[in-house]
């Protein structure tokens, strides 16, 4: 741990997302993926094998409000950025006693005392005008600068992430 | 020597604040809240020997919004449940906010809170 706000290992372990199953989509196992960003805290995305996102979390060891910074980073990762709405960002303050014995002891001893702030970004499924259900997906392809969050219909076999579709469209144009 | 001691008029120490009430802000439709947090909230209140107050965001909206706004994790659409400990000196501490991941994660947080060193010390002394 080197940067101010970075989570010590004991707190990281306490905040590690549990397993579980994809909610109302495929019932597949949900995995947690860690993301890196210029922010010092811990990012985790919970997504099923198809890429449907349950929730994205950002945790930082600070008493300050991190929501704005979180929103800015999410907007860089999301296509279109307007998908990141203030009302979908919720936060929780974790003080220690609810994080297990090890994290509680660590946070109680630390000076100055500060809690852990966790911001949750959850986009609930929505319906488009034609009644098609749309969910939040994430694409982790290494060719992208970072993760790409986008809305798509889970039933659509041709769905592609906007960043993946861009070079494909460019290739198509070139081949004409 | 202080004036009070000189005159023999010793001012009694103010009584240390004591736990007064547990309040849970919840919704009936939320699986992190009912029955989970009601059950664990009762246990917590029993351990502290204080009453439990439940504020339903759909029925006691103003009181629920107010305690969350003033002492909790407030947001336009805030997380529930939020559990508060009110003290006799009018202080209010946020003890637990539900985890947005899955219900078992919130249950784990409740279990950790109930077995925490902090709760043991507060329950033993009854003071902050």
Could you outline the blueprint of secondary structure elements for this entry?
The complex is a heterodimer of chains A (176) and B (128).
Chain A lengths: L8 H7 L15 E5 L6 E6 L5 E8 L6 H11 L11 E6 L6 H9 L6 E6 L4 E2 L5 E7 L8 E5 L9 H14 L1
Antiparallel strand pairs in A: 1-2, 2-3, 3-5, 4-5, 6-7, 7-8
Chain B lengths: L2 H5 L11 E8 L9 H13 L3 E5 L4 H11 L10 E6 L4 E6 L5 H12 L2 H9 L3
Parallel strand pairs in B: 1-2
Antiparallel strand pairs in B: 1-3, 3-4
Helix pairs in contact in B: 2-4
* Total of DSSP H or I helical runs spanning 4+ residues of chain A: 4
**Number of E-type strands of chain A:** 8
Provide the succession of SSEs of chain B: HEHEHEEHH
Oligomer: heterodimer
CATH superfamily of chain B: Glutaredoxin
Note poorly predicted spans of chain A.
none
What are the salient characteristics of this protein?
heterodimer; A: alpha+beta; elongated; B: 128 residues; alpha+beta; four-stranded mixed beta sheet; 5 helices; 39% helix; 20% strand; globular
How would you sum up this structure, described in words?
- The complex is a heterodimer of chains A (176) and B (128).
- With 176 residues, chain A is an alpha+beta fold.
- Chain A has one domain.
- Chain A has helices at residues 9-15, 67-77, 101-109, 162-175; strands at 31-35, 42-47, 53-60, 89-94, 116-121, 126-127, 133-139, 148-152.
- Chain A has a five-stranded antiparallel beta sheet with strand order 1-2-3-5-4, with helices on one face. In chain A, strands 6-7-8 form a three-stranded antiparallel beta sheet, with no helix packed on it.
- In chain A, a hairpin with an 8-residue loop joins strand 7 (133-139) and strand 8.
- Chain A is elongated.
- Chain B has one domain: Glutaredoxin (3-Layer(aba) Sandwich).
- In chain B, helix 2 packs parallel to helix 4.
- Chain B starts with a helix and ends with a helix.
- The relative contact order of chain B is 0.20.
- Chain A binds chain B through residues 17-18, 20, 46, 54-55, 57, 67, 86-101, 104-105, 108, 120, 122, and chain B through 73, 75-79, 94-102, 104-105, 108-110, 112-113, 115-119.
